[in-house]
Amino acid sequence: MKNYIKKTILAGVAGILLVPTLHASTVNIVTVGGNASIKLVQDRLTNSVGGLLPGGTITYNATNTLIFRAVGVYGGSTNVTWDFNFTGGAAAILDIANQNPVRLADNTTAIPVNAISVVAPETVGINSTALGLQQDYTLVAPLVYVKNPGADLVGVSNLTQRLAVYLESSGGTLPATYFGGATANPVYFVGRNTSAAVRQVVDANIFFTGTAANYHTNALGQPVQWTGAGSGTEVANNVKVILGSIGTVAAQDAGTLPQLSYEGVFFSTASVTNGTYPIWGYERYIYFPAPDARAPSTTQLGLITALENAVSDPTYDHGNSLFVGKFVSYADVNANVSRSTTLDGGLIYSQIY
After folding, report:
1. 191, 237: one domain
2. Are residues 58 and 75 in the same domain?
3. Angle, vertex CA 139, rays to CA 138 and CA 141, nearest 5
4. How many CB atoms lie within 10 A of CB 28?
5. pTM for the full model?
C-alpha cells in the first residue's frame, strides 16, 4: 500500500511539472529592414522593463552587426527566436516582394515574413497595391545632413535643394567656398548605398536621380570614391575622418556631428510636425496579409503587431531618450500634416486651417 501511494503521488507531481512544457509554444520569425530604427527595435524587444522579450538576449552575426538574433520568452509562455537582417530598407522591400532568402546571425539563410522600412515600395519600383502588400505605419524617421567639424566647412550651416544635388552629383570636385565654406579644398559627399532606405528617401526629397559621387576613407585615411555606406554609423564615422565632408544619416545616427539645415529649416520635432522640414519618411512594417501563403502565421503576426505597438506607444515616443529628438511620433505628424505614403518626397499639406 505504501508503495502504491508513493507512486501515485510522484505521478501527480510529474504531471504538474509537465504542464508548462505542454502549454509552451515556440515561434521563429525572420524580419528584414533598414537600420534607421535599429536601436529602437532592439530596446523594445529585450528591455528588461516593458520589452516584448524582457531580459532576452541578442547575438550578432560574426561579420555584420546589422544582422542579429533576439531570443526570449513572450507573454511568459511563447519561446521566440527572432532573426533580423537590417542591411537595407530598400533591399528589404525587394526581399519581401520577391521572397528572397536572406542571411541570418548564424550564417544560415531564410525567407523573411516582414520588412521594416522608411521608404515606400513604389519608390523602389514595387506596386504595393497590385502585389497586395499590407503596410502598417509606426513612426516618422527624419533624415539629416551632417558635416565634418573641421575648418573647411566652418561657414556652412545650410544646404539648398540645388546645393544638395550638386553635393551628391559632384562630390570631390567642388570647393568648400562653393557651399559657403572657408577654403578652396574639395567637399566630399558621404552617403548610403542604393540598398538603403535612407538613400532613397533623401534622393526623393532633393529630387536627385543621377549617380552619386560617394566617398569613404581608405586604410590611409584618404577619401576614395565608392558605392556608399551600409549604415548610418558608418557614414558618421567617415564624416568624422574626411575633412570637408558632408553626409546623410537618420537623425539617430547624427551623434555629436554638426547638423545642417535644409532650405533654411533645421530639423526638430516641431519643424517636422508643422510641415517645414521635409526630409523624412514614414516607417512601415510590410507583409503579405492572410490568406496569402506568404503571410506571417497567426503567432508571427501577433508578435509583429506587438512590436509595432511598442515602437509607436505614445508614452515611449514622448519620453524615451532613444526616440525623443531622433524620431517623430506618427500620431503627432498625422494630426498636423498629410503626405503621400506612396510617393517619397511628395508635397506636405498642413491639416491645421
Report:
1. yes
2. yes
3. 140
4. 15
5. 0.91
